[in-house]
């Protein structure tokens, strides 16, 4: 394939992705994702399988016609006709026609064992089913794509018959034949070898559709392109049944940035992370922090030698620039970090600091002591900045904690009530406030704000957005140490803090204090 030729990207998130455990897209979800995919620039958006058993999919095809979709073609998915049923009488094909989708994609059987043992028909009848179905849909579509289901398993079992099935699809008018590794068991060199043989026997566009059961869906898709495939199917973020489908986010980055291929979405590579996270959000799934290219830790450096190398020459420990996919480089503060990281972190506080400076060595030693106690600053950068500024004498606490108390009570109606009181000192003034909340942590947070708001009005804008607890070490009993992470936001930025104790309330209190101190400290700068 010439590097000047455009590859077509076929997204099946709304159908294959929707089959994943824990995902169930509503109509509004599907419309929102379709717009995101269109903005990103995929060539095809497979909307689903329109039939009486899928009312949401039927409604999607009616609704999407009213939407402005400018970059992508909408495809409806189905199967070949049933054995011994004419295309005109087959309900699946009729629903495909009624969808009015410009592109129709159908799958058919390539593996002789499926023909005989799954759909219980003759090999010749299966060939007729393929050709008559494609021919019928060709009359009602701008384009027909034929998905050769189980093609690689079928080819290895009976190469002559598997090849005949796709020849029939091409002869009947399929514009593209997507070869499917439906069970996800093929190896990359098998994919490449078989596709080269296929290209000797058909002249239409050949595509690839991989599942990830062997952990090779992305690699197999790239191998297929290397062998000559010009159409790639997959799912955003790799959702799908069992182990998922080929991850189109990773594939798009590899094709554009590693293989030099032309994709319509290539111009949007700097927003790749945005599209990945946006679709995770619609799917209500936690994003994979370790996802290649777009994960939160994809360009996160923790080891001292790694950080030192990146600070000197970024490419010494990074395969691409993070900005190429809309990501950012992160230096993680930890007990594995060296002086280079501390110097980098301190450069915002002390611009002239050198990593060989005694103050850097002293702070590094202190950070390691805190981490030995269980603190983790890799996801608590606000706690690190508060710690560093205190340690360097650049920040003095604006209030002092004299004490706090939390009371949990259950009323006669069985309802739980959390009440917290805090006693603070600001200058020469002692302040004592009490507040109720939805649980002890919320009650403490409310009482602290109530005590401080008159002196620091800006904390009114601060919200506690996320709260997580992790048990540390091998102890799992009630005396185990815990680490609390808290995310704060004020409408302008987010910051993260951590607290550690054998007492979950104390750990939470320490994290809350860091969050409030950070806000006050930022407001002063």
Estimated radius of gyration:
29 Å
Side by side, the strands of the main sheet go 1-2-3-4-5-6-7-8
The helix content, as a percent range, equals: 25-40%
Catalogue the unreliable spans.
none
Termini separation: 56 Å
- Strand residue percentage: 15-25%
CATH superfamily of the largest domain: Aldolase class I
Total number of beta strands = 17
Overall, the morphology is elongated
Briefly, what CATH class of the largest domain?
Alpha Beta
What's the architecture of the largest domain in CATH terms?
A: Alpha-Beta Barrel
Name the structural class: alpha/beta
Instruction: Output the CATH topology of the largest domain.
Output: TIM Barrel
Question: Counting H and I runs of at least 4 residues, what is the number of helices?
Answer: 17
Q: Provide mean pLDDT, rounded.
A: 91
What characterizes the major β-sheet?
8 strands, parallel, barrel
* Count of discrete structural domains: 3
Tell me what you see in this structure:
The protein has 525 residues and is of the alpha/beta class. The chain folds into three domains: 6-283, Aldolase class I (TIM Barrel); 300-372, no CATH class; 400-524, 2-Layer Sandwich (Double Stranded RNA Binding Domain). Helix content is 38%, strand content 21%. The protein is built from 17 helices and 17 strands. It has helices at 27-40, 55-64, 91-99, 112-117, 123-138, 151-157, 159-171, 188-199, 217-227, 248-258, 272-283, 304-312, 339-346, 358-372, 381-391, 440-452, 504-524; strands spanning 6-11, 44-48, 73-79, 103-109, 143-149, 176-181, 205-210, 231-234, 262-263, 300-301, 330-331, 400-410, 416-426, 429-437, 463-471, 482-489, 494-501. An eight-stranded parallel barrel has the order 1-2-3-4-5-6-7-8, surrounded by eight helices. Strand 13 (416-426) and strand 14 form a beta hairpin. The longest helix is centred in the last third of the chain and has 21 residues, at 504-524. The chain is elongated. It starts with 5 loop residues before the first strand and ends with a helix. The model has no long low-confidence stretch (mean pLDDT 91).
